[in-house]
Specification:
Keywords: Membrane, Transmembrane, Transmembrane helix. The protein is an alpha+beta fold. The protein has one domain. The chain has 3 helices and 3 strands; from the N terminus they run ααβββα. Strands 1-2-3 form a 3-stranded antiparallel sheet. Strand 1 and strand 2 form a beta hairpin.
Length: 126
């Protein structure tokens, strides 16, 4: 049983809509991650504990993709400060959008080659 061109076209249309939703999710979670990190204070985000003899912050490293802040303490330990769920959603939505776009383009190319073959077949018949 062959899949009809109409069903394939519906699948492509659905994939483009899904791609738009995934891109929206990437943008929203990335923005949320940046805002959450920018709004956090060094002391609040990197505080190792409430004890007065705890090591102090020696350095803070930022990464933009994915949004993350790493605090390096004087004793050499590090603390990663990032909205963990938003980073997971960001990476998952980004990877899913790449796969979704690749599949949509591949199906579209199959449809185009199928249509071209049908046109060639129609012109070859007497």
């Amino acid at each position: 049983m062959a899949i009809t061109s109409d069903r394939l076209q519906n699948a492509v249309d659905t994939l483009w809509v899904l791609l738009a939703v995934l891109i929206w999710a990437v943008i929203v979670t990335y923005g949320y991650g940046l805002l959450a990190l920018a709004a956090s204070e060094y002391g609040d985000a990197c505080a190792p504990g409430l004890a007065g003899d705890s090591p102090r912050i020696a350095d803070v490293h930022w990464t933009v993709v994915p949004p993350q802040k790493t605090c390096v303490l004087e004793d050499g330990t590090t603390r990663d400060v990032a909205p963990a769920l938003s980073n997971r959603i960001f990476v998952g939505a980004l990877a899913s959008s790449v796969v979704c776009a690749a599949v949509a383009v591949r199906i579209r190319n199959v449809l185009r080659s199928r249509d071209a073959a049908e046109e060639q077949h129609d012109t070859d018949e007497p």
